[in-house]
Amino acid sequence: MLSLQRIESGYGESNVLRGVNLDVEPGQVVCLMGRNGVGKTTLMKTLMGLLKTRKGSIQWKGQELSTHDPAKRARSGIGYVPQGREIFPQLTVKENLLLGLETSAASVKTFPEDVLAMFPVLATMYGRQGGDLSGGQQQQLAFARALAARPGLLLLDEPTEGIQPSIVEDIRQVILQIKAKGEISILLVEQSIDFVRGAADYIYVMDKGAIALQGTPRELDMSQFEHHLSV
């Protein structure tokens, strides 16, 4: 289980996150929504240790992570697909995938076949450089790389942003496959209400660096929901 209590974080002298409380239960898909600039990506970066936790607690499987560096958090079983994908454009698809094994606790050198089966197009592109792939293909590559080390928690920061509808549907199906197995928890930042409704067990809505609304898709009042998402 992931549990955030009263998290504060930000950039320079600016505080972006203001007392954020958030939980992700085992096997659960939790979606984090909100307008641009309200702190969603800041929260994901704070979770991974890319930004310092100024106040509050990050508990993962009962262990306090707020003072751990990103590498230690990854080795504890947290996978991360950042906004913008951040694959290595000069490396081949195969090399990018194998880098995902570096955070595995086990000394595994072969990319897991069941993960590759979720993204069959990647197997046909092993020798191509990552930078030659389309945006949607790069997103699938980043997603597969994060799954390589068998994380217990997967952080996905806007995985459908700027990609073609067919690959959006492929990504949705992968999330649903992971959810059905119940072995990996997912914290997903997403803007599409329809996408979230079809995948989420629980939703948090952020506004001005704090959680403004939360509940299951059935519980949320849609008028309030749309108020916090409208520009």
UniProtKB/TrEMBL annotation:
PROSITE patterns: ABC_TRANSPORTER_2. GO terms for molecular function: ATP binding. Residues 2-231 form the ABC transporter domain. CDD domains: ABC_TM1139_LivF_branched. This is Urea ABC transporter ATP-binding subunit UrtE. NCBIfam families: urea_trans_UrtE. Gene3D superfamilies: P-loop containing nucleotide triphosphate hydrolases. Signal peptide: none annotated.
